[in-house]
């Protein structure tokens, strides 16, 4: 089971996939970072070993595929209509709050990448139907980035959102019922602030917690007896 987006799929010379827990389509030479839920960004070439360099965002101008590992966090893949460039970002709430989106797009700009040529895809992740958070987290997000959504819908709500589609599992049990968080919407506001428009961004409505056992979920396995599962999402440029 894979998830693809039309936006990235339409880019010439760009391959991508949001993989499931089988990871059967993962490229053998895939580069990924040692993710730390931070804001570090790196550019890689053909030689770096995977899983060693500490960062949560990576980009390349080579044909080596790059990716991220997730199990509820946002897998964010980026390609360009014209530039020889692809990127992958691991977007948990901590990294988003720490500035991983801002740092990434600043690095892209410094590398000469045209932001108006970019297409961004956000893959399967935990959705507001299952992502319950506490007031302390909401307060921290509001202090850091609340100005981005003044007068608009906040990326959190005290009302639980229903699932966007028929679910394969039951939704996450409610605990303190203080707030339900929308990671993808939070990321969308950050991408807008970085200079993108809505037409450049696509987001999946697949919840890794309740949509299917094919998607790995850290939070689900804390609520149930499950083996540790996760998925690789990747993007790459085809050899000419």
Which CATH class applies here? Alpha Beta
Question: Any guess at the CATH architecture?
Answer: 4-Layer Sandwich
Q: Spatial order of the strands in the main sheet?
A: 3-4-7-6-8-12
> pLDDT under 50 segments (min length 5)?
none
Give the mean pLDDT: 94
Query: Treating each run of at least 4 consecutive H or I residues as one helix, how many helices?
Result: 6
Return the string of H and E elements.
EHEEEEEEHHEEHEEHEHE
Number of domain modules: 1
Give the strand tally: 13
Protein name: Polyphenol oxidase family protein
Pfam families: Cu-oxidase_4 (PF02578)
Organism: Pseudomonas fragi
GO molecular function: copper ion binding; S-methyl-5-thioadenosine phosphorylase activity
Description:
InterPro entries: Cu_polyphenol_OxRdtase, Cu_polyphenol_OxRdtase_sf, Cytotoxic_necrot_fac-like_cat. This is Polyphenol oxidase family protein. It holds the Pfam family Cu-oxidase_4. One of its GO terms (molecular function) is copper ion binding. Belongs to the purine nucleoside phosphorylase YfiH/LACC1 family. This protein is α+β, with helices and mostly antiparallel strands and 240 residues long. The protein has one domain (2-125, 188-237): CNF1/YfiH-like putative cysteine hydrolases. The protein contains 6 helices and 13 strands. It has helices at 6-9, 93-98, 100-110, 135-145, 183-193, 218-223; strands at 2-3, 14-19, 41-44, 57-60, 66-70, 74-80, 86-91, 118-122, 132-133, 156-157, 179-181, 201-203, 231-237. The strands form 3 sheets. Strands 3-4-7-6-8-12 form a 6-stranded mixed beta sheet. The chain has a 4-stranded antiparallel beta sheet with strand order 1-2-13-5, with no helix packed on it. It starts with a strand and ends with a strand.
């Amino acid at each position: 089971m894979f998830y693809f987006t039309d936006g990235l799929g339409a880019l010439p010379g760009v391959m991508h996939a949001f993989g499931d827990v089988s990871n059967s389509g993962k490229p053998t030479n895939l580069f990924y970072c040692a993710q730390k839920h931070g804001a570090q960004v790196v550019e890689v070439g053909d030689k770096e070993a995977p899983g060693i360099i500490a960062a949560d965002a990576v980009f390349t101008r080579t044909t080596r595929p790059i990716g991220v590992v997730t199990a509820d966090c946002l897998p964010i893949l980026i390609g360009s209509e014209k530039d020889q460039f692809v990127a992958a970002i691991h977007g948990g709430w901590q990294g988003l709050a720490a500035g991983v989106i801002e740092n990434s797009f600043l690095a892209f700009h410094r590398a000469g990448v045209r932001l108006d040529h970019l297409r961004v895809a956000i893959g399967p992740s935990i959705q507001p139907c299952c992502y319950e958070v506490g007031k302390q987290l909401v307060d921290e997000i509001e202090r850091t980035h609340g100005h981005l959504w003044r007068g608009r819908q906040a990326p959190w709500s005290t009302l639980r959102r229903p699932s966007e589609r028929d679910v394969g599992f039951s939704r996450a049990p409610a605990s303190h019922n203080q707030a339900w968080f929308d990671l993808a919407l939070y990321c969308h506001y950050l991408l807008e602030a970085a200079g993108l428009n809505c037409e450049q961004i696509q987001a999946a409505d697949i919840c890794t917690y309740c949509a299917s056992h094919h998607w790995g979920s850290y939070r689900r396995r804390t609520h149930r007896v499950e083996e540790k599962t996760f998925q690789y999402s990747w993007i790459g440029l085809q050899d000419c």
